[in-house]
Amino acid sequence: MATLSQWVEGARPRTLPAAISPVVLGTGAAIHADGAVWWKAALALFVALALQVGVNYANDYSDGIRGTDDVRAGPLRLVGSRVASPEAVRSAAFASFAAAAVAGLVLAATSGWWLLAVGAVAIAAAWFYTGGSRPYGYQALGEVSVFLFFGVVAVMGTTYVQLGEVTWLSVAAALGIGAIACAILVANNLRDIPTDTASDKRTLAVLLGDTNTRRLYQALLRAALLALAWMAIIEPWALLGLAALPLAARPHEAVRGGASGPALIPVLRDTSLTELVYAVAITVGLAIGA
Fold first, then answer.
1. DSSP SS3 for 202
2. How far, in whole angstroms, is CA 76 from its chain's centroid?
3. What is the C-alpha to C-alpha distance for residues 271 and 253, in angstroms, rounded to an integer?
4. CA-to-CA distance for 190 and 284, rounded, in angstroms?
5. Domain 17-289 of CATH type 1.10.600
6. C-alpha 88 chain-centroid distance
7. What CA–CA distance (Å, rounded) separates 33 from 25?
8. pTM reported for the whole predicted model
9. Which helix (H) or strand (E) holds 107?
10. In the chain, where are the structural domains located?
11. Can you tell me the distance from the alpha carbon of 25 to that of 89, in angstroms, rounded to the nearest whole number?
12. Cβ(54)–Cβ(22) under 8 Å?
């Protein structure tokens, strides 16, 4: 039976900035429009965190029963390491999805019932990333999903539930956050190219190969910088987001320099921190400029 600390590690807490950042920046866009609703922001944050934990447990379960995680360079996987039963991990995933659904229901009831459809699609996307008979995460579509749900939907959705509309600032923010969130997944899949190839897991990194995957990672970080420039045209104080550049430089150089295997684990950490600092710093700038 897994210990509490193993369950926490299995929830992959280092990935949580990818859930926090879009809600922070989406709220920043709402603040800039003088329409922040703090209890809705808090509920949106809960939904994002619950979905992130749910997808992490779901991936642990689905990859574990397929044997994909039997040999890996990354952190603990509960099923793959045989410290928790597949059934227990699957139940943890469903419980997280249920918690997200309950909080999402409140947001839908107060912001628009059509949001229920968005939530249902988000939960389905979380499960079928590695679950089901034809998981799309095994078909090089993981980055598309991350960009949509941890970029476009999370940022613009957070702004919408507070303002009742989507602003150009939230669109630019969604593109920037989505790019960095994709970079996190790209770095993860770059590390796992050898094991994913052996287990017939066709991620985008497997299809692109090592060199092109490294180029994609670097391009995504630059895309986030371009999105920041767009935000700065709308609100110059958004340039506070440049505070994330020193953090981004470390993983960028590690990937460009050929880091592989366990040496890419700090890249995941630093890219996640880059995303969080990017979101918080820009949000501070948007609040100042409001």
1. strand
2. 19
3. 12
4. 33
5. yes
6. 24
7. 13
8. 0.91
9. helix 86-111
10. 17-289
11. 31
12. no
